[in-house]
Amino acid sequence: MKIPFRAAVSAVALGALAVSAAAFAAKDAAPTATDADRFVAAAEKELFDLSIPTAQVAWVNATYITDDTDALNTLFGAKNTEASVRLAKEAARYDKVAGLSFDTRRKLDILRQGIVLPAPATEGAATELNALSTRMSSTYGKGRGTLAGKEINGSDIEEKMGTVRNPDQLKEMWASWHDNVGKPMKADYARMVEIANQGAKELGYKDLGAMWRSNYDMSPDEFARLTDKLWLQVKPLYDQLHCYTRTKLNEKYGDGVQPRTGPIRADLLGNMWAQEWGNIYDVVAPAGAGDVGYDTTDLLKAKGYDALKMVKGGENFFSSLGFAPLPDSFWQHSQFTKPADREVICHASAWDVDNKDDLRIKMCIKVNGDDFTTIHHELGHNYYQRAYNKQSYLYLNGANDGFHEAIGDAIALSITPDYLVRIGLLDPAKVPPADKDIGLLLRQAMDKVAFLPFGLLVDKWRWGVFDGSIAPQDYNKAWTALRLQYQGITPPVERGADAFDPGAKYHVPASTPYTRYFLARILQFQFYKAACDQAGWKGPLHRCSFYGNKEVGANLNKMLEMGMSKPWPDALQAFTGSREMDGTAMIAYFKPLMTWLEQQNKGKTCGW
Fold this sequence. Notes:
Strand order of the largest sheet: 1-5-6
Number of domains: 3
Number of helices: 25
Pfam families: Peptidase_M2 (PF01401)
Strand content: under 5%
Keywords: Disulfide bond, Glycoprotein, Metal-binding, Signal, Zinc
Protein name: Angiotensin-converting enzyme
Oligomer: single chain
GO molecular function: metallopeptidase activity; peptidyl-dipeptidase activity
Helix content: 55-70%
InterPro entries: Peptidase_M2 (IPR001548)
Distance between the termini: 26 Å
Largest sheet: 3 strands, mixed
Number of strands: 7
């Protein structure tokens, strides 16, 4: 999963230099609406001015990890955290002021709620908090596992988890990565939670989780209920996919490796975190229908694609919708491949360094179908960032964080056989016929549907950690229990109390809220269906590609350019006509597959 830099920056801080309350209203005087307007304007200027050097430092640290760049990132992060907390507390002074305009009220709420890791006012707390955050991110970026006893870096181990089929080697990679990367940061994580929770309480929240859930134009409890409702809509589809996949893994590996009932062994699913299963499609593909007639990785290699050409291909999709080309600086500044001479964070992300058009992606691209899809996803962030760049600073973000993730995913859903033909990758004679649709849908579901419970449980675990119901000594026990409850998976080896498996997932040490990715899985199908309806598509939904449709592009841009200036239901309605997030578009997309899975699982003992 990927994050735009505007979201990533707030993982260290939202803020900027302190804006003195005395500049707007005396401490003993009741603040007025005019005072609030002036405070917001000054705060936005300070935020804007500091955000650029902060982004530049963060970019250098992510693409050139050294003790010095770690120190610089910590320094800027600490300044930002201290200032963002002061701004948030000052914003709270205006909470009850009468006569506030819509924009001032909304921006005050963003200032108060938008800090991902708030530090308390205690001297040195912000510095310690950012030192912990930077150290954990660097530990992750430098992380190594082993394969056949030989050291292997994070980027390569991710790839090998998808291609190796030897269960002993898969177990070795899984265990070494989780032990080497996660376990060492457990104490740092517990201390970070302690500090940030105190900061959240000083801002008036019960805990940090409640603060995170306040960012969705509804109460924290209402948002938690919404995520549960969405999960229950799509859970039956996941349950059928789990049952079918487990059967296929049992057939391949036998009862001694993967029993025919109960949970699935986590390392057998083609992904270090068992969050997406598409890499083992060859294991689960149904006879006949499973061979869809092409493999995107093979097509890319046959056509001589390299990293740059893959990114150009992603840009071409957006150009076909009428969006302007990416700026020259994008091609000059982005990191497309892993440098041979230094440590970098390979986790893919999209960046907006100057809040205008210094757009970049940071990847360690390999020529394969997964990275081709990821490129389309990351560029979705960049085009969203550019679309709203005329908004004021506090509105430079998606309608909610799920929107930012869903845009590129909706584009990637349009990477259909028809699209591959139109860009010259696939021979028209090799377009799979309708009787291959189950294979096409199953391959999509192995990523899109399989991800759903993982997308939900990462933050369910953190919400429990933040509210104290999960104590540090139970971190891993609770993590494993949630993985079993929601995903129906189990670790390949026994996990001790000293383990910290959540830390082996980038977004946990990076303190990136994760529910956005669950929301994005739901929203992308709503966006995709709306685009296909606007394009006049009449065939099966999963075969639709709106590539080249400038009307869809124009309508999409109307939503994108709103940024965070309106509540997310307004933005959703602007493009889809609906004000509700729901899973019905996803269910409609996979309906033929659901019917087929139920037939395949007939007589099986499903569940775990």
